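Task 17 of the worksheet. Students: predict the tertiary structure of the chain below and write it out as C-alpha cells. Keep your answer in the requested format; marks are given for formatting as well as content.
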Amino acid sequence: MSGDADSASTEQIRDALRRVIDPELGYNIVDLGLVYDVTVRNDGRDAHITMTTTTRGCPATDYLQSGARDAAFTVDGIGSAQVTLTYDPPWTPKLMAPAARVHFGIKDE
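Model answer:
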C-alpha cells in the first residue's frame, strides 16, 4: 500500500465496520469477533473482508454482509469491497473483544 492520503488502511475499515450492529445482539460486528480479516489491496482502493456469523443459518447474514460492504465504502478511497463469509473457524464467544464479553456478562475461562 502506498500510504498516501487517498489510500485506505485496514484500521480505517475496521473502524467503519464498528458501525455495523448485529440486530440480534445490539453490538458491533468487530468487537463481537465476527470480522476475521480485513485486507486492503491496490494502493488502498480494494477492500476484502472475511467474516462469519454467530451461527450457520443466522437470519441476519445478508444484513451483516451488506452492512460490512457498505461500511467499507464509507472509507475514503475504497473503490471495491468484497465480503466473504466463512465458518472456519466457527465463531465462539472467546472471539469477542474483552469489553464485549464484559457487556454480555461472559466470564473468561
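Marker's comment: The helical segments are 10-17, 61-73, 98-103. Residues 21 and 28 are 4 Å apart (CA to CA).
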